[in-house]
Amino acid sequence: xxxxxxxxxxxxxxxxxxxxxxxxxxxxxxxxxxxxxxxxxxxxxxxxxxxxxxxxxxxxxxxxxxxxxxxxxxxxxxxxxxxxxxxxxxxxxxxxxxxxxxxxxxxxxxxxxxxxxxxxxxxxxxxxxxxxxxxxxxxxxxxxxxxxxxxxxxxxxxxxxxxxxxxxxxxxxxxxxxxxxxxxxxxxxxxxxxxxxxxxxxxxxxxxxxxxxxxxxxxxxxxxxxxxxxxxxxxxxxxxxxxxxxxxxxxxxxxxxxxxxxxxxxxxxxxxxxxxxxxxxxxx
Length: 284
Ligand SMILES: [Zn+2]
Prior knowledge:
Keywords: Signal, Transport. The chain has 10 helices and 8 strands. It has 2 domains: 12-164, Nitrogenase molybdenum iron protein domain (Rossmann fold, 3-Layer(aba) Sandwich); 169-280, Rossmann fold (3-Layer(aba) Sandwich), CATH 3.40.50.1980. The chain has helices spanning 2-18, 36-46, 70-78, 90-96, 127-140, 147-168, 185-191, 209-222, 236-245, 266-280, and strands at residues 29-33, 51-55, 81-84, 102-104, 176-179, 194-197, 226-229, 248-251. It is globular, with a radius of gyration of 19 Å. Helix 2 (36-46) packs across helix 6 and helix 5 packs antiparallel against helix 6 (147-168). By secondary structure, it is an alpha/beta fold. The strands form 3 sheets. The protein has a 4-stranded parallel beta sheet with strand order 2-1-3-4, sandwiched between helices. It has a two-stranded parallel sheet with strand order 5-6. A two-stranded parallel sheet has the order 7-8. Zinc ion binds at residues 64, 122, 181, 183, 203, 254, 256.
């Protein structure tokens, strides 16, 4: 019964977060986040401040290729602050061009090069980059009461998560991560892994038969036991390679969005990812 109520409440919260056109009371900061991790960082930094943090990518959707509805474009134009990562969502890049309310949250992050030019936008999978994102948001909202203290607490939580990951991955014997798309470069760099993405930087890219064969070969020669798939993307290619090589598959979440109805958050998803990695990468 309690579980049902929680789910119902969560459904309501998500619905209200994702709702368009509802006018928050005056004096409330209107913040629009491009996708889930930025929404999470903003909520942590704002704490109980009078703010509404909406998200452009609805729960259950994959954020790379979102299109904005006219209503969302209006929301972007009217917001006090729009949080985004340039190069991640082209439709949003176009919508915020030249707007002074847009904040590039990667401003203080040294971005890794993308596999085929440009930079890799998947910065949020290193908790210390989440700290940097929180700091950039807090700097912009410095006059909002409570933000400095909440940012400190968020930073401490991300430090703790990073320490948990460092300890949990210190003894892994398999260092190659075979993942469904190239979302994990920052995580790999932080914790001593090498990423091999089956698809490219975007999950919608169909991998070529040559790439699938190359990955299957790598899995066999390196004795890789686990191929990671993700929640919001069809796992069939990962399953095909696993079936071909005798490897198993496991869910490793790039945290690009929240699965519809899930009560998980960034920290709990990262902790679940750590347990998955510890098993899949033979960490003692
Ligand atoms: Zn991605």
